[in-house]
C-alpha cells in the first residue's frame, strides 16, 4: 500500500527538520548520526501501512537488520531503535508522561511538524482521499477524548476536517523542544486560519 503523504519526500523533510532542530537545540555532534538514521527509518513497517492480517511488530527487527547489514555498531543500532520506538503519536494517547531523550525529542518534533502548516494540510487531504473519508459533515463532531484504540481502529472512520481537530491541532502542545514549539505555533496558526476560511466558505459566507 502506498500512502502518498508518507512517501520518500516525507522522510526527506523529517530528516532535514530533525537535523536542523538538533543543531538549533545544541545536540552534540555524536548524536547527529543517530538522529539522522532514526529520521530516515522512523516509518519502516509503520502500522498505517499494514494490510489486514499483517504482523505490525516487525518494525524493530526490520530496522535492526537494515542497520546490522550496513555495519552499524550495536550501540548505534540500540540508540536508533530507542528513538524510533518513541516517535509515534498513538503511543502518547492515554499514556503517562515519560522521559524523552534529546535525540528522540528532535526526531519526534520533526515528524510532527511535517503534519502541520501548508504541508500538513496537503497531507491531511491526501490521506483522507486515499481512505475515502468524507471531506466534512457538520453533524459528525470531532472526538474530544481520542484513545489509542480508537485512533488505530480502521473501522472508526472520521471526516478529514475532524482529523484536524482530533489530532493535528493538538500537536503544538505535544512538542518536546523549544525550537519545535516555536515552529509548531506558526504552522498551527496557519492551519487555524485555513479552517476558519473553510468553515466560512462551507456555510456560504464567502
From TrEMBL:
Residue stretches spanning the membrane: none
InterPro entries xrefs: HD/PDEase_dom
Signal peptide boundaries: 1-16
Key words of the record: Signal
Residues in HD/PDEase domain copies: 3-125
Lineage top rank: taxon: Eukaryota
Keyword Signal listed: yes
Protein name (record): HD/PDEase domain-containing protein
Amino acid at each position: 500500500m502506498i500512502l502518498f503523504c508518507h512517501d520518500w519526500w516525507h522522510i526527506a523533510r523529517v530528516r532535514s527538520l530533525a537535523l536542523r532542530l538538533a543543531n538549533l537545540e545544541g545536540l552534540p555532534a555524536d548524536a547527529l548520526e543517530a538522529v539522522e538514521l532514526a529520521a530516515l527509518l522512523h516509518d519502516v513497517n509503520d502500522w498505517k501501512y499494514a494490510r489486514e492480517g499483517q504482523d505490525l511488530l516487525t518494525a524493530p527487527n526490520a530496522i535492526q537488520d537494515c542497520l546490522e547489514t550496513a555495519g552499524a555498531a550495536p550501540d548505534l543500532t540500540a540508540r536508533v531503535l530507542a528513538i524510533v520506538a518513541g516517535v509515534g503519536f498513538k503511543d502518547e494517547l492515554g499514556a503517562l508522561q515519560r522521559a524523552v531523550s534529546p535525540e528522540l525529542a528532535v526526531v519526534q518534533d520533526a515528524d510532527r511538524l511535517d503534519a502541520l502548516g501548508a504541508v500538513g494540510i496537503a497531507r491531511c487531504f491526501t490521506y483522507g482521499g486515499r481512505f475515502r473519508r468524507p471531506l466534512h459533515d457538520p453533524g459528525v463532531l470531532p472526538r474530544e477524548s481520542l484513545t489509542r484504540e480508537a485512533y488505530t481502529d480502521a473501522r472508526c472512520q472520521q471526516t478529514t476536517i475532524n482529523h484536524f481537530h482530533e489530532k493535528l491541532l493538538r500537536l503544538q502542545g505535544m512538542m518536546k523542544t523549544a525550537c519545535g514549539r516555536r515552529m509548531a505555533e506558526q504552522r498551527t496558526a496557519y492551519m487555524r486560519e485555513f479552517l476558519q476560511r473553510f468553515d466560512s466558505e462551507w456555510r456560504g459566507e464567502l
